[in-house]
Amino acid sequence: MAFAFLFPGQGSQSLKMMDGFADLPVVQHTFEEASDTLSLDLWAMLQADSADAINATVNTQPIMLAAGYAAYLAWQELNGKQPALVAGHSLGEYTALVAAGALPFAEAVKLVRLRAEAMQAAVPAGVGAMAAILGLADEDIRAACAEAAQGEVAEAVNFNSPGQVVIAGHKAAVERAMALCKARGAKRALPLPVSVPSHCALMRPAAERLGEALKDVHLNAPAIPVLHNADVASYGDAAQIRDALTRQLYMPVRWTETIQQLAADGVTLMAECGPGKVLAGLAKRIDGNVKCLALTDRAALEAAREQLA
Fold first, then answer.
1. Sign of the dihedral through C-alpha 17, 23, 27, 32
2. Which intervals hold domain Malonyl-CoA:ACP transacylase (MAT) (predicted)?
3. Is 80 left (phi over 0), alpha (psi -120 to 50) or beta?
4. Fewer CB in a 10 Å sphere around the end CB: N or C, the chain?
């Protein structure tokens, strides 16, 4: 039975989220490698009393990369079956590339830290915003954003599932778009507590900085096909992968289409690899025929291994 691994991005982090994997040495080793690479103790951040450190995007991105990859290595150590395809939501695309053997882990850790710094530097605090629009068709959201822009940026940036789309851009333009979405029949329009308006045109300066850094990163042809966010396509050429990662910063995350493409390829069993169940929930809403397991701890890994044996 062909199955795919899905790797989560920012928003799935929580304190002590890796405790269910803590008895697996490979998980500790993975976090140690990431921590040594950055001269930061990422595991200690997860054990803290406050979530402030893990919610700072410069820490969140390497933490989620390490978490997803550690869970994947734990799956391999437990003799889990190799996935036919992998994909990651936003930041999770980097984890997917590491799991596929295209991007060395230590290089990825440094790259996502730089990515986070570039994103934060691209838009001053308070200038940008993001909001979730629930219960409105994609075309209506796009139309509302176009009307709300008024010379600023307001764009649909995360197509997470039918009826769940995130918009981003200048704060005032996003607020106008929220009101227009409500007027068009949206059930809810919720501002998101983020410091960076990801995946919109405001991220182009960050993409340029990331693109320069990617020139110095050695990429291999993926051993497992990776579906990229920007194109819902997989690439074997290093230049194409660099381009897809650069464009990903200012182009929408086409997650609904990603799950639909996996299903069209005959992959109806998937597993969210890492802490949290966000992607598992989205997959079920996108396609009722898809089953997505959530590999949130060692017990879940072992249960999934038995199911796929």
1. positive
2. 6-300
3. beta
4. C
3-state secondary structure string, 226-246? EECCCCCCCCCCHHHHHHHHH
Measured between alpha carbons, how far is 278 from 299 in angstroms, rounded to an integer?
Answer: 19
Residue positions annotated with a catalytic role? 90, 199
Q: Please indicate, yes or no, whether the overall pTM of this predicted structure exceeds 0.85.
A: yes
Question: In this structure, how many other beta carbons lie within 10 angstroms of the beta carbon of residue 269?
Answer: 18
Q: Specify the amino acid at residue 4.
A: A
Q: E strands along the chain, which residues?
A: 3-7, 85-88, 128-134, 154-161, 164-170, 188-191, 226-227, 269-273, 291-295
Instruction: List the one residue out of 292, 289, 288 whose CA is nearest residue 269.
Output: 292
Q: Where are the beta strands (DSSP E) in 111-227?
A: 128-134, 154-161, 164-170, 188-191, 226-227
Q: For residue 233, what are its two tokens?
A: 């396509």
For residue 166, what are its two tokens? 């995130």
Pairing of strands 226-227, 85-88: parallel
Q: Are 128 and 198 in contact (CB under 8 A)?
A: no
Question: From the CA atom positions of the chain, what is the Rg in Å?
Answer: 19
